[in-house]
Design a protein that fits this description.
It contains 15 helices and 14 strands. By secondary structure, it is α/β, with parallel strands linked by helices. The strands form 2 sheets. Strands 1, 2, 3, 4, 5, 6 and 7 form a 7-stranded mixed sheet that branches. Strands 10-9-8-11-12-14-13 form a 7-stranded mixed sheet, covered by helices on one side. The longest helix is centred in the middle third of the chain and has 21 residues.
């Protein structure tokens, strides 16, 4: 009897088995339950209805052991165990997605695709699916899917609030696995349509998180407290974007707007947590992220895995690398001044510049009067530093492309 009066069980029933006006009437009390009563002891995140915006391509897998209506049970839950890794399948390899792809991209009638044929067969054998009791109901639902596709394609993707729908859980919902994987939960048609149309950004609700992921998120926040609660660069994972950063996207936007080539190989020196490697990989570059600080490496590798990136991580000082390949672009952002503080590193740095086979460099110099440069072996002024690089490398000229929010200048050397 207990399950019959559980608000989450009742919500599941009303959501899938009742008319719209009943669903909307119930919704306010359900929201109150989740945000207040249910949060006590069992829920981990008070902002459970906060929308996150993601690239649809970043949802690769369907959550294992999925059943319709799980979002009502999962909203706000933090849970350990293997629920996130057993029997995962790729969203775009599912029969339902393939059927929608055949319909919208290859004009196959939806009712003639394999997935919807199976749905019809189950309905005709007595099951009620998606509220459909017969073929006519399913046919109408297919027409509604066509309307949804045309609406999103021509009018843009709208949230439930924008549509005037009080059922806020009627968004695409997802879970976060232990490594940061975004695992699809519900809202198949909207996610599939977004992927097929090629949308770059849609809203989702994250309902359930793995406890190991939550632990990692807390590690980031704890580490950021060393710098006033801010990480160095913005975090790209949709469940981490609310963590503030010292730098904005300004440097990336400056670099992107002055890219001399549209693809190629990047050497990211002093990659820190890999922000620029993430960005360059997203637009098609092959990246090598160089970082030798153990603490920074830990977060670099974890965040690379969380976003399923493929760039190469080199865990040593660039001064100790054997550079046997050429690079289209070298990123040297607020890093080279660390190589001129001692005579030993200065000589290695000079050899490094002579050895790198590169076409372009984005260079951000330090402030000449910084305290950290007191008693440095060499302390170049800005233009002197640029000239030193040009004199000791294969690069011949430079241009100023802008300044960061902290007024540090950014140059393109070529």
């Amino acid at each position: 009897m207990k399950n019959l009066i559980d608000p989450r069980t009742l919500a599941r029933f009303l959501y899938y088995g009742s008319p719209e006006y009943v669903r909307n009437a119930f919704w306010r009390s359900y929201l109150f339950y989740i945000k207040n009563l249910s949060m006590i002891k069992t829920r981990g995140d008070a902002s459970v209805f906060e929308l996150k915006y993601i690239d649809p391509k970043s949802i690769i897998y369907i959550r294992p052991s999925f059943s319709l209506g799980d979002k009502f049970e999962n909203i706000g839950i933090i849970e350990d165990g293997d629920w996130d890794i057993k029997d995962k399948i790729k969203f775009e390899e599912s029969e339902s997605f393939k059927s929608l792809r055949d319909h919208f991209l290859h004009d196959v009638p939806l009712m003639e695709t394999p997935f919807y044929k199976k749905i019809l067969n189950r309905i005709e054998h007595g099951e009620i699916l998606w509220g459909c009791h017969n073929k006519e109901h399913l046919t109408q639902r297919c027409k509604n899917i066509d309307k949804l596709y045309n609406s999103i394609k021509h009018d843009g993707y709208k949230t439930q609030r924008e549509l005037g729908n009080q059922s806020y859980l009627d968004e695409v919902t997802a879970n976060i696995g232990r490594d940061g994987d975004i695992l699809f939960e519900e809202g198949h048609h909207r996610l599939a349509i977004a992927k097929l149309i090629g949308l770059e950004r849609i809203p989702i609700l994250i309902t359930k998180r793995h406890s190991e992921w939550v632990r990692f998120k807390k590690e980031i926040i704890s580490y950021s407290n060393k710098d006033g609660g801010k990480v160095y660069q913005p975090l790209e994972h949709p469940d981490l974007t609310e963590i503030p950063s010292l730098h904005s996207n300004m440097r990336w936007n400056l670099i992107k707007n002055h890219l001399p080539v549209q693809n190629g190989t990047i050497l990211d020196i002093g990659a820190q947590w890999g922000y620029f490697s993430h960005k360059f990989e997203d637009i098609g570059f092959n990246c090598y992220a160089v970082e030798n600080n153990p603490a920074e490496l830990y977060f670099l590798k974890k965040l690379k895995r969380a976003e399923n990136k493929k760039f190469n991580v080199i865990s040593k000082s660039v001064l100790d690398m054997d550079l046997d390949q050429s690079f289209d672009i070298v990123l040297a952002l607020n890093i080279f001044h660390h190589f001129i503080k001692t005579k030993q590193d200065f000589l290695k740095f000079k050899n490094l510049l002579q050895d790198i086979n590169m076409k372009y460099m984005f260079f951000e110099p330090h402030y000449y009067k910084e305290d950290q440069m007191y008693n440095a072996y060499v302390n170049f002024k800005e233009r002197d530093f640029i000239n030193f690089i040009l004199e000791n490398s294969c690069l011949k000229d430079y241009k100023h492309i802008g300044s960061d929010s902290d007024r540090r200048n950014l140059y393109l050397l070529y």
